[in-house]
Queue: 2 jobs
Job 1
Amino acid sequence: MSTVNTIEYQDEIAELLADFTANVSDTVDVNIREAAKRALSDSIAVGLGALDHPASHIARKFVTPFSTQHGSVIWGTGMRAHPDLAGFVNGSLLRCYDYNDFYVGDRNSGHPSDMVAGLISVAEWVQASGEELLVSLAVGYEMVGAIFDGYSTAPGGWDYTNLTGIGAVAAVGRILGLDAGQAREAFGINATQHFASDEVESCELNSRGDLTLWKRFNGTDAVRNAITSCFLAKAGVEAPVRPFTGKNGFNQKLANDHDPLPILSERLDKSKKLSRVAETYMKLWPVGSMAQSAIRAALEARSKVNDTNRIREVRVFSEEGAYEHFIEMRQDPYHSLSRETADHSMPYIVGTAVLDGYIGIDSFDLSRVLDEERQKFVANQVKVTPDLSLGAKADGKLSRASRGYLSRVEIELNDGTIVHGEAKPFPGHPKAPFTNEEIAQKVTQNAMPFASPAVTEQIIEALGTFEAVTNVRDFTEILSFDWASTNTN
């Protein structure tokens, strides 16, 4: 005679995440809807700007054998694929140029927009409305904010994508209409199936002299796993019994020395309105987050210089974390040898902003990086110094980020005149959020090299009124243009 184990195990974290995902209100304030539209539009802009990146070519090559007529659109092509693969390929675009948004929580930071392309692909697959997508996106960002407050990936040497994957489960689970029971299984599957190492951020260069291309894929790979988790749970697959709190569960693997449950319980109060999508940081320039303030200051100082030949020295004073990230962690920050070493070099970034009067994707073209005169200017005339009065690591990352990862710039001319660029929050910071015009400008700058003016205008118009889109397929159809035939690069 068989017996049934009647012991009921409980995983309070899995149940909390699931209850919030399924039951938080879909009524959002106007400012949160607009913030979700900014996050969506910013991600589309960044993705379209990377259609000719080497990682993009590889991603399309990877997905070609799996294309299907009735799938979700591979942006910039007529190809379609199942939503997990379409989201994976489109999501890789968002990490090609260090240009997408980022979020800083109490204990962790990363890129919540990793989830956007995957969410769009799933919304297209189920023919969701624009409003449903925006609400699901806000739910995903709310989850990421809570998870970044509740967990640190540093003690175990794990990558931030282990946390954004949880946010992606919330967003995708919401668009699929998972109930709390199904969502609980989706979170459980996701929390135990796939752990990403932080070795991707080792800063060690490969044989090409670049950072690994996997950095362009690790975020979207986590989202692909989240999508699979949600579809599996919807089909009826059960997760481990205690995926977060079990003896080998998520909490144990992250090796944090605190209990995340009280933090998550406070952050994920389903009676409160969604808000955290409005707290994400966006980038006007395609470089790491901690260099944005330095670019702003460099361009301000540069605007006061009529002739760059008169420059004797450029001095950059950066908060401690930015100095560490763009100087101390780099093998030779004053002598860049590739796109990816240049866009992670504070001397090159600021030197190029001063020389050219702007920073764009083409600022890191190899011909420009290796230009002999530019190399001399960066190596001999740009000096970077840490300034703890602008922010010290002891202050904590959240404090430094909320101030704007501040840097200031001085340009000294040959006659001894010194002009200044002040330390201020950068455009796209929550204290200086993008306007609708700035978002439209970013979409235009990134789409126009690959899409016709008419298609670019269609994209901007649809994004501006996305809540009125009745079927996301109508929007993604616009993205099925042939980028190669209109490429003006």
Job 2
Amino acid sequence: MQKIKFIFFVIVSSLVFVSCVNSDNKALLVGDWKGTEWLVNGNLSEYDASKVTFHFANDGGYTSDFGGDKEKGTYIIRDDKLFTTPDGQLEIMVLISKLTKDSLVFDMNRSGQSETLTLIKQ
């Protein structure tokens, strides 16, 4: 019986910890972000990062603009991954490699090509 209580405690503690981390990440993510650098395979790309913007709302909605290519939908954070679901489209996942109160770095893979997008909070 003690072993079952211990296992139950470990599981509940792990879930609470993960929930708190996701909640902290969401609190840091909420707001307006603007691109500063876009790397493809570790090199500067031809994409203009300064034209990339994101707005993440507290209610789980987001909007983005990739230099005129606008998107709106919902998002969730699980561990170090951001899952966005544009209205009427399939879910997209990007890795959050860095998230602080003023900077955000996405690691992405598009068609087998490694891409890193760095944004700053506005």
